[in-house]
Specification:
This protein is an alpha+beta fold. It contains 11 helices and 12 strands. It has a domain of 152 residues: Ribosomal Protein S5, domain 2. The structure holds adenosine-5'-diphosphate and magnesium ion.
C-alpha cells in the first residue's frame, strides 16, 4: 500500500505549486501492542509501525514564504519563514510548523518551503496520524535544509512539536514506533534508556484495530490520578527496598507481592498493572523469539484483565470486544491499546483469518451497543523513510 498515494500526490504538487517536489518522505502510524501506561514509569513497550502512513512532498520556495498544504482536506496556509507561529484556526498545520521552527532556527535559511502532505491514516483513531505527520515532515525538512537528525532526535522534535505547537502532552512512543518500525516485527522501547530494538513477529502475525468510537468523560482527571498513584507507589518502594527506585520500572513483581499488603489498596492495584505490564513485555519478547504466538496472545488477554480490574482504564465497550475475542476462533489475544477509557482494542490473529474475525467482532459489537465499530487490519511495517526522488 505504501506507494499508492505517491505518484498522484507528485502530480498534485506540480498543479498546486507550479514546480515539482525535490524531496519526498513517508512515515507510518503505529499501534501499541503490549505495555500499557508503562512509558511514564520508565518501563517497556512493544509497538508496531503500521501499513498506513503520511507522505510529505517538499521543495524550497524561491522566496522567504512558506506554503503548507494538507492534501486530505484541501487546505493551505502561508507564512514567512522568519515568523513561524502556531495558529488555532489551522491546527493541522501546527504539527508541521512545530517541526519547521527548530530547523529554521538552526539553519537560518534564505528561503522558505512548499509542502504538500497526505495520509492513509484515519485522524484521531488511535493510530497516531499526528506523529506520522510530524515525522514525515521532519524527515523532509531536515533533508531539504541540510541538517540531518538521528531517529531519536527526530522523535524528540516530534514530541516537542506536540507539546509546544499542538498542545498535546504526549510521550515518545508514537514517534519512536513510526521511525523504528520494521516489516513483520514489533518495536521494543526501553523508556528509561530509550534503547530501541526490533523483535521479529513472523509472517503469520497481523492485528485488527477495533475502534469503539467512544471516549468517556473525565479522562484527564483519571489520567492524573493514575500518574499520581504510580509516583506514590514508586516513592513507597524507594523507602523500603534496599536498591534505588526512581520509577515503578525498578520494582519486580516479587518485590511488589512481598510488600503490597502495606500499601494503600488503590495505589497497590495501579502499581500491580504497571509492574505486571513491564514483566509481560519482557516475557512477550521472549515468547516472540520462540515463535510462541499463543503464549504472546495470552499475555495480551492478561494485559486487558489487568487494565480492567487493576488500573481501571477500560470501559464496557472495550471489555465487550475483548470478551467477544475470547470466544471467536482464530483470535490469539486482545487488549485495549493506548490510554484507555474508550478508544481502541488491538487483536492478534493470522492474516488469513483477519477479515472473518473483523466481521464477527463487528456484528457482536453492533448487537450489543447499536453502533458500528471501526475495524482495520494492520500489518507490522517498515518505519519512516525518504523516498527516492
Ligand atoms: P491521532 O494522532 O491518534 O490520529 P491526534 O489528535 O493526536 O490523533 O492527531 C490528529 C490531528 O493531527 C488531526 O486533528 C489533525 O490536526 C492532524 N493531522 C494528522 N494527519 C493529518 C492529515 N493527513 N491531514 C490533516 N491533518 C492531519
Ligand atoms: Mg496523536
Amino acid at each position: 500500500m505504501s506507494n499508492d498515494l505517491y505518484p498522484d500526490l507528485a502530480t498534485r504538487f506540480i498543479k498546486r505549486f507550479g514546480t515539482p517536489h525535490t524531496i519526498a518522505a513517508y512515515a507510518p502510524g503505529r499501534v501499541e501492542v503490549l505495555g500499557n501506561h508503562t512509558d511514564y514509569n520508565e518501563g517497556f513497550v512493544l509497538s508496531a509501525a503500521i501499513d498506513a502512513g503520511t507522505w510529505c512532498l517538499a521543495t524550497p520556495s524561491p522566496d522567504l514564504q512558506c506554503r503548507i498544504a494538507a492534501g486530505d482536506i484541501e487546505q493551505e496556509v502561508a507564512f514567512p519563514v522568519t515568523d513561524i507561529r502556531a495558529d488555532r484556526k489551522t491546527p493541522w498545520a501546527n504539527y508541521v510548523k512545530g517541526m519547521l521552527a527548530p530547523i529554521v532556527k538552526q539553519a537560518n535559511p534564505a528561503h522558505g518551503v512548499r509542502i504538500l502532505f497526505q495520509s492513509t491514516i484515519p485522524l484521531g483513531a488511535g493510530l497516531s496520524s499526528s506523529a506520522a505527520l510530524e515525522i514525515a515532515s521532519g524527515l523532509a525538512l531536515t533533508t531539504l535544509y541540510g541538517i540531518p537528525r538521528s531517529k531519536l532526535e527526530l522523535a524528540r522534535m516530534g514530541q516537542a512539536a506536540e507539546h509546544e505547537y499542538a498542545g498535546a502532552k504526549c510521550g515518545l512512543l508514537d514517534q519512536i514506533s513510526s521511525l523504528f518500525g520494521k516489516a513483520h516485527a514489533l518495536v521494543r522501547t526501553d523508556f528509561r534508556s530509550l534503547e530501541v530494538t526490533t523483535v521479529p513477529a513472523g509472517d503469520a502475525t497481523c492485528f485488527l484495530m477495533c475502534n469503539t468510537r467512544v471516549k468517556h468523560s473525565l479522562v484527564d482527571s483519571e489520567y492524573n490520578e493514575r500518574r499520581a498513584r504510580c509516583e506514590e507507589a514508586a516513592a513507597f518502594f524507594a523507602k523500603i527496598l534496599s536498591h534505588p527506585v526512581q520509577a515503578l520500572r525498578d520494582v519486580s513483581w516479587t518485590e511488589f507481592e512481598a510488600h503490597r499488603a502495606a500499601m494503600h489498596p488503590v495505589t497497590a492495584r495501579r502499581a500491580a498493572h504497571v509492574i505486571g505490564e513491564n514483566e509481560r513485555v519482557l516475557k512477550g519478547q521472549r515468547l516472540l523469539k520462540d515463535h510462541d504466538l499463543a503464549g504472546f496472545g495470552a499475555l495480551m488477554f492478561e494485559s486487558h484483565e489487568s487494565s480492567r480490574t487493576q488500573f481501571e482504564n477500560s470501559c464496557p465497550e472495550l471489555d465487550a470486544i475483548v470478551e467477544s475475542a475470547r470466544t471467536i476462533p482464530g483470535i490469539r489475544g486482545a487488549r485495549l491499546s493506548g490510554g484507555g477509557f474508550g478508544g481502541s482494542a488491538v487483536i492478534l490473529c493470522h492474516p488469513q483469518d483477519a477479515s472473518r474475525i473483523g466481521q464477527q467482532l463487528a456484528s457482536q459489537y453492533e448487537a450489543r451497543f447499536s453502533k458500528t465499530p471501526e475495524i482495520r487490519v494492520i500489518t507490522p511495517s517498515d518505519g519512516a523513510r525518504l523516498l527516492p526522488g
